[in-house]
Amino acid sequence: MAKQIRIENVFKVFGDQPKQALDLVRQGLSKQQILERTGQSIGVFDADFTIEAGEIFVVMGLSGSGKSTLVRMLNRLIEPTSGRIVVDGQDINGLNDQDLRALRRKDISMVFQSFALMPHMTVLDNTAFGLEMAGVDKGTRQKAAQEALEQVGLGAWGASYPDELSGGMQQRVGLARALASDPSILLMDEAFSALDPIIRTEMQSELLRLQESKRRTIVFISHDLDEAMRIGDRIAIMKDGQVIQVGTPDEILRSPANDYVRSFIKGVDAAAVFKASDIARQALTIVSEHSDRGCRAALRLIEDSDRDHAYVLNARRRLLGVVSAQSLRDALHGREGMLGLQHAFIDNVVPIDAATPVADLFGPMASAPCPLPVLGEDRKFLGVISRTTMMRFLDRDTPPVPPPQPVQPPVTLNPMFPTGDADTPAMLHEHSDAPATDKENKHE
Ligand SMILES: Nc1ncnc2c1ncn2[C@@H]1O[C@H](COP(=O)(O)OP(=O)(O)OP(=O)(O)O)[C@@H](O)[C@H]1O
Ligand SMILES: [Mg+2]
Questions:
Q1: Burial of 216 (0-12, 13-18, 19+ CB in 10 A)
Q2: Alpha-carbon gap, residue 309 to 328, rounded angstroms
Q3: Is 12 near ligand 1, meaning CB less than 6 Å away?
Q4: If you write DSSP's letter for every residue of 288-330 in order, what string do you get?
C-alpha cells in the first residue's frame, strides 16, 4: 500500500543558531546574507505540502536549493529543525530508534545517484544487501532480491559481478536493491542523473512501468525538467530552501508562479511533453443520425457559423467524416433532393490519436487538408488541431496550452432546420463549440 506524506511547516537550518537564522529569514534576508552574517545555512524553509499516496512527486530546483535536504528529512537521514513529517498519519519525528529502523527497512527505501555496489559480491547479493543488514534470513532475502532483479529486467544477472554490468545496469541493481524490501515509499535523489540520455529515458519508462504494476509513493529529485514533466504526477519547485510552487506539470507550464519558475520551464521541450489531446480545440460538429441526407442543412450550418469545416459524428461521438463548405457545394452541384453527408466527405483526413506527442504532429499537419480530428478512447472525437493551433503552441511567449475551454452542451436545433429543405435531417445537432468567435480552427 502506497502511503501519504504530509510535510508540515518543516524547517532545516544547518548550524548551531537555528533560531537566529530563522528570525533573519522572516525579516527578509536572503540565504546568502544570513550565511554571511551568522554562518548558519538555511537548508529548507517552511516546507508545507502533501505528497499523495501513489503519486510520483518530483522535486526540482537549482543546486543548493534544498532538494536533498528536504527528501532526507522524509526518512530522517536529516533531522528537521522544526515542523512535522507525517507518514500515513504517523509523525515520524516521534519514532524511537528501533521504530525508525523498521520504517527505513520496511516502508521507505532510498535510491541515490551512484550506488556503491560491492565489487566482490554478486549482483544478487548486492541486491539483497539491505535485507541482509536488516537481519533477514538468507533464503527469504535471496528470493526477494531475485524478484526485485526480475522487476528491473535483470533476472538473469544475479550470479554476475558488478564490473560485468554497464552503468545503466548497475543503476538498475541500485533500484532493485531499493525494491527488494517492497517499500511503500521510494525516495530517489537524482537517481538517473548520471546516466546517458537514452538509458535515462529507458529507466524513466521502467519506473513508470513499475508504477503501473504496483503503485508506490515516489519522491524523485531531478534537475531535468523534461524528466520531471515526463514522470511527475506533480512537481515542486524549490529556491533557496523554499518551495515556490507545487502543481501538476500542466499547471506549472500553464501558470508559473513567478519568474524563477518561468525561467525553469523556458527550456522545456513542450512539444515532447504535450499530447495531441492537450492542444485539441473544439470545432463545429454535426451529429448525423441519418446518413442518407443532410448536405444542404450542413452547408447552411457551416455558412451560418462562419466556419470552413464541420466534423460529422454519430450519436456516440464517433467520427464519421469531415465536410467543408466547398465539398458540400461540390457534392450538391447539379443535384436535386436529399443527399447523404458521406457524399461530401473530404478525402485523406487521417485522424490523430489523442496520445500522440505534439512533436510528432508536424508531418501529418503539413499535408492535412483540414484541421485534423483528434480521437480518444474508442475513437471518440475530442476536437481538432489546425496549423494555427500548432503555431500558437510553438510560440512560447504565449502559454503553451490554451486554458481549458468550457464545454457547451450540444444544441438541438429545430428538427426542421434550417428551412425545410428536402434533405433536412431528422436530427441535426449543432455543437458549435466555444469560443464562438474562435477563428483558430480556420485552417488559414
Ligand atoms: N551538512 C550540511 N552542513 C551545512 N550545510 C549544508 C549541509 N547539507 C546541506 N547544506 C546546505 O543546505 C543547502 C541545501 O543543500 P542541498 O544539498 O539540500 O541542495 P540540493 O538542492 O540537493 O543541491 P544539489 O542539486 O547540488 O544536490 C545548501 O546551501 C547546502 O550548502
Ligand atoms: Mg542534492
A1: buried
A2: 10
A3: no
A4: ES-TT-BHHHHHHHHHHTT-SEEEEE-TT-BEEEEEEHHHHHH
68 lines ligand 1 (CB under 6 A): yes
> Distance, CA 190 to ligand 1 centroid (Å)?
14
pLDDT in tens, 329-350: 999 998 887 888 889 999 999 9
How far apart (Å, rounded) are the C-alpha atoms in residues 62 and 358?
Answer: 28
What is the value of pTM for the model shown? 0.69
pLDDT per residue over 362-384, tens digit each?
889 988 999 999 999 888 999 99
Give the alpha-carbon dihedral of 31, 36, 41, 46, to 10 degrees: -30
d(CA 427, CA 290): 8
Q: Taking the domains of the chain in order of start, what are their residue ranges?
A: 5-268, 276-431
Q: CATH assignment of 276-431?
A: 3.10.580.10
The DSSP result for 61-96, as a single string, is ESTTSSHHHHHHHTTTSS--SEEEEEETTEEGGG--
**Binding site membership of 64 for ligand 1 (Cβ less than 6 Å):** yes
Q: Is 224 in the pocket of ligand 1 (CB under 6 A)?
A: no
290 pLDDT band (50/70/90 cuts)?
Answer: low
Question: Which residues lie near ion ligand 2 (Cβ < 5 Å)?
Answer: 68
Percent of the chain with pLDDT over 70: 87
| CATH number of this structure's domain 5-268, picked from the four choices 3.40.190.10, 3.40.50.150, 3.30.565.10, 3.40.50.300 | 3.40.50.300
